[in-house]
Amino acid sequence: MTDFQVRRSWAMTAYPTVQKGIGSFKAILMVLTLGLGLHALAPAPAEAKAEKPAEGPTEADLRLDLSGIGLPVLQDGRVMNYVFVRVRINFNPGIPRPEIEAREPLVREGMVKAAYRSPLNSGTDLMALDPKKLEAQTLGAARAVYGAARVRSVEVRDQKPQKRLYSAPATGTQPRQPIRP
User: Fold this and answer.
1) Which of the chain's termini has less CB crowding within 10 Å, N or C?
2) Cα separation of 87 and 108, whole Å?
3) What is the pTM assigned to this prediction?
């Protein structure tokens, strides 16, 4: 006998499950299944029974996070840049979550339309919107869609400009001369 055949025959006798083949595998599988089945039928601990599910909607159900809304930065009636904002709208209890999600596109549309009607940027900053103006217009758009009594507050979470732009120099200053090699 070769060395390989000796090792193989020893392995076959040392591990009887290998010799018996699929039959012993089925037996092991049945024992595991029976053990899991009995565990599932065991009574639940007393602490788990004492806990009641929360009554009413949770705090997460009463808010709507809007992100990726591109609002224009206007200067002299022209769009100079876009700022992408993240806004959270907090609701009063009594509004179901499916209704909140169903009317989300209307709030987005109202925010964009209001931003084009009256500029939200402050002064000469072309990379940010005025947070107070943005909150007021978002609150107005949300209350128009959901109703004034249902919307509690609005939070501006983040603002990111599309382009890095800086305002033009004030009038009266000398323009820079181009560099020529």
Assistant:
1) C
2) 10
3) 0.60
pLDDT tens digit sequence for 2-57: 665 656 555 555 555 445 555 677 777 777 777 666 566 666 665 555 555 556 66
C-alpha separations of 117 from 57, 72, 74, 112, 124 in Å: 36, 10, 10, 9, 18
CA–CA separation, 104 and 97 (whole Å): 11
Q: Tell me, what amino acid is at 157? A: R
120-150: pLDDT as tens digits:
888 778 888 999 999 999 999 999 999 999 9
What letters, b where the CB count within 10 A reaches 16 and e where it falls short, cover 33-54?
eeeeeeeeeeeeeeeeeeeeee
Quick one: DSSP state of residue 61? G
